[in-house]
Amino acid sequence: MTSGYFWSFAASLSFAGYLVVGKISENELEPIALVFYLSLLAFLMGLPFVWINKVTINNYSLTREISNAGLWLHVICVFLAMWTFWEGVSYLNPATAVMIGRTETLWTVLLACLVYKEKFSPVYVLAFILMLLGLIVINGNLNDLSAISTASGSGIVYILLSSVFFAVAEILAKKVSRDIPPVRFTVYRNGIITIIACVVSILLGQIHWLERGQWLNVTLAALLGPCLARLFYLQSLQKLELVKVTLIGEFEPVFTALVSFLVLKEIPGLEEWTGGALIVAACLLLIVNSHLVEWLKPSCSRQVETNKNSIK
After folding, report:
1. pLDDT tens, 15-58?
2. Cα–Cα distance for residue pair 117/216, rounded to 1 Å
3. How many domains does the chain fold into?
4. How would you class 304 by CB atoms within 10 Å of its CB: exposed for 0-12, middle for 13-18, buried for 19 or more?
5. CA–CA distance, 197 with 32 (Å, rounded to integer)
6. Sign of the CA dihedral 262, 268, 269, 273?
7. Do residues 102 and 280 touch, judged by C-beta distance below 8 A?
8. Distance from CA of residue 209 to its chain's centroid?
9. What residue spans of 205-269 are helical by DSSP H?
10. pTM of the predicted structure, to 2 decimals
11. Upper half-sphere CA count for residue 240 (Cβ side, 13 Å)
12. What CA–CA distance (Å, rounded) separates 4 from 245?
């Protein structure tokens, strides 16, 4: 159990480092170019796992998996999510971006209600209100929503778009993972995103060969994020329940703020912390509500059986 908490906190710290190093790299690269290099390096780093897991695949399986429509929709959503996320980070402090990005939890829950016909709860409305208040506070003006046209406002819009794309990607991933093993799924995703990002970067004229120092930063970001953070996350899931891992994940803004302060000498202001706290509270409300519903189901079932027996 203790090791599960260790891996979960390690995943959050690795993700924080990924954002901060990515922010440094973005000062020298356009966001779309950063997506290309991160995906390329993550793809190359993921190839050894195919060999380690002794994954074999024939031509028929490869063709069938690559032609999976869900895989392509998922990849396109992840690509758009990464692009808009790094566009948003270019306007915002990394910790603030993570706070806003936590809205992905709400979008995922709402989409699950629509796609998987999960029961809608009034708690979702309260969570949405808290999230909206948090975004308004972070934007810095409770009375004038036209402030969204400012640089910070543009960053908020980009991160919100990113969280929506990530939520859609997660919904699609749940279906695709039933047809494609995780290792190949990850390799396919990174490889296809690399190709898409390369083409878009060339068309926009926003790609160039990296210098030695730039390679170091981008490689470190790819190692911390797509590789180590993902590995630590999967390790934590083997030791802890999903709800506990998710709850620890809500502390990512704190870790990101700490790493950002140590490396970039940046730290969110009072408005960012207040707004971020409201957004995290909305996410925690959704998580706790979901866990409570699952916990109450057996009790309700036992109560129904008791009532039936008493009637008899």
Report:
1. 888 888 888 887 778 899 999 999 999 899 888 776 665 555 55
2. 46
3. 1
4. exposed
5. 6
6. negative
7. yes
8. 28
9. 212-222, 230-239, 242-249, 252-264
10. 0.76
11. 22
12. 8
